[in-house]
Amino acid sequence: MMEMFTVPMNVSSFNETQTSSSEKNFIDATIYYMVLFLMSVGVPGNVAAVVVMLKMKVRTPAVLAVAYMALFDSFALISKSISYGLEYEKVDFGVIGCKLYYVPVVACSSIANWTLVLICAERFISVTFPWKRSQIIKFRYLHKTVIAITVVLSIYFTIHFCVFFEWVDGKCRIVNSYLAYRFIRQAVSTLSPLILIIICTVSVMRKVSFSKVNRNITMQTKLSRRKLEAFMSRIMITTAILFFVLNIPYIVCVSILWPALDFTRRLDIVILINISYFLRDSSHALNFYIYVISAKGFRKQFFLIIKEFLFKEKKKRDASIALGARFNQCSILKRASKL
């Protein structure tokens, strides 16, 4: 006989016998609007990050990897907003929805996390094996790796949720072991990327300083390429630190605290866990702003794009005004000729 647990479609779906319905509704609404806030902040920032990286004068696989990560961060925020919105409106998912509901949310988040692993691995190779960098890190390898990660994780999480979720008596339930479901999911989506990111980041930071990275990797390259390498290393380290800081509370709460408390759904525990969820989701929304603050090259390129955009708009307005003035002048001349 399989052991069954009611699925908390998000952590706020706790036992109403221990909390009032008004408290539950308040927490559900708070979670939903917090995620909407993250999407409103994160998606424009991620789109801007993609534009800035693709506008770089010197483009490398690392630059493209950052653009890929920003793209999947946006997908993660959008899918989470839709997910929480459906939960908030208490939509009936049905049999298929029960099994596939979480796949886009978890898959997009996981792909973004593993793309950050690729960025850290690229920096690690560039610092540790600079003479092999051009042979190992190529654009076509990056494209194939990102596609492979996307396909593998999408298929894996589809199977994962089909195995662990069942529609029973009008409710979506987790079958077999809840601990196994939670541990496997977190290990693949967050814990494994976090461990690899820590290893690569610590190795890079211990190997050389930013100035030494600049000299060792790009001794024979142009100044623009050296500056790009330096700011890519800074982006990698600051992004990795941000990822660590925002995901550690989530891992501790969900993987250690919650099981240790026997899955208690007291209001205080639910609030604490949802705060950790909010911090975790923030890792998909704040990268662009970290780039602007920490990387001078990124900040300079971003403001240059803004300046060019405003200049083009000004030229369009000036051209429109000039065209209107010519049209008025022609009209005046026509009327004068008739007289």
Protein model, in words:
It comes from Biomphalaria pfeifferi (Bloodfluke planorb). Its main location: membrane. InterPro entries: GPCR_Rhodpsn (IPR000276), GPCR_Rhodpsn_7TM (IPR017452). This protein is mainly alpha-helical and 339 residues long. It has helices at 21-54, 61-88, 94-100, 103-128, 133-136, 139-164, 178-207, 210-217, 223-260, 267-282, 287-294, 296-338, and strands at residues 4-6, 165-168, 171-175.
Number of strands: 3
Helix content: over 70%
Strand order of the largest sheet: 1-3-2
Uncertain segments of ≥5 residues (pLDDT<50)?
1-18, 216-221
Report the C-alpha radius of gyration, rounded: 25 Å
Domain G-protein coupled receptors family 1 profile: 45-291
Transmembrane segments: 31-54, 61-82, 102-125, 146-167, 187-205, 235-258
InterPro entries: GPCR_Rhodpsn, GPCR_Rhodpsn_7TM
Subcellular location: Membrane
How are the SSEs ordered, and which strands pair?
Elements: E1 4-6, H1 21-54, H2 61-88, H3 94-100, H4 103-128, H5 133-136, H6 139-164, E2 165-168, E3 171-175, H7 178-207, H8 210-217, H9 223-260, H10 267-282, H11 287-294, H12 296-338
Antiparallel strand pairs: 1-3, 2-3
